[in-house]
Amino acid sequence: MQMSKLLVNITSEGTTGKIEIVGSISEWSQNNAADFRAKCADLKAAGVTDVTVYLMTGGGDCFIANEIVDCLTDNFTTYKAEGGALVASAGTYIAVCAEKFTIAKNCQMMIHKPSSGAFGNETEIENQLGVLKNITADYLAKYESKLKKSKEDFLAKWNAGDFWLSATEAVEWGFADEIKEPQKLDAKTENLASAVLAEFNNQNQQTMTNLVTLLVTALALEGINANSTEAQIVSAVQTKFNALQSKFDGLQAQVQAQNNNAIKAMLDEAQAQGKIFAGNGKKVEDIRATYENVGKTAGLEALATILGGLQSPQSITSQLSGDGKGATGEFKTFAELQAKGETFMLTFKAEHKDVYNALYKAEFGHEPRI
Prior knowledge:
By secondary structure, this protein is an alpha/beta fold. The chain folds into 4 domains: 7-180, 2-enoyl-CoA Hydratase, Chain A, domain 1; 184-218; 230-308, no CATH class; 316-364, no CATH class. It contains 15 helices and 8 strands. It is elongated, with a radius of gyration of 47 Å.
């Protein structure tokens, strides 16, 4: 059975002590055998004589279960046990060793033979098998001591594997003494419970009143007071939030319109400066749309930075020194002119044919034939 690690809680009141064992009976952590024995000794020293062990476990280590029983009987001679929703495997050993075992109505109990794993040579495995047989014999003897049915019937179940029993069946077989019925409250307890509930309701009502007051103040709710129903409060809050949302949407639309106007003005100015123009197969409208999207997504500052870095187109003539006559001073070789690219060369040839021809002739020994 897979459960969480073992949790052991020990409490006492007067001469009565309670030990809760919940989870897998293994991996004791701080609740190891030494700690458990010490806590039992402390209970005994404090005058506790009547101990009840609560079990909610799928089982675990047989040796740990045996040690728990030894600690209990060494300190208190006998103990009582109560079963929660599940008492299985090694947990049932603790249950049947109790002077009295009371089981929850919805409890499931499971008994089976102890099991173990073996590793080593044949002698080591035979030794481990001997230990397992001793544990199995001890467990079987404890179960048989509680039997209300025949030993033969039990052995048939024992040898068949996991033997699951309901609370009623556990009592019928003798492994549990009685089924724990829901506890009825006496008049004193009922009065106390009623008083506690009344106080809780009073505090809850006061909390609701304070919450309504806070909402009315914080949200300026109209027509709401401490006597308003939950539906009225929810409706008022929703109405208030709807109004705030509408106002927010209006402000957002106003800001967006202002941004759009600013973007348009920036693009108009850039276009007037000749920074936005058709080219490379793109229309002015397409280029503007691209920059407009930049403004809407990255912001006005980013758009301004980009537009500020754009340069207006210049004619080839304006890129040359003087009026073009001194171009041979800028381009000393035809190779330098070629480095400007084919488009530049063609434009340069059309605007400064004489300079172009001179550079060409200096490079190739003759003027261009075309």
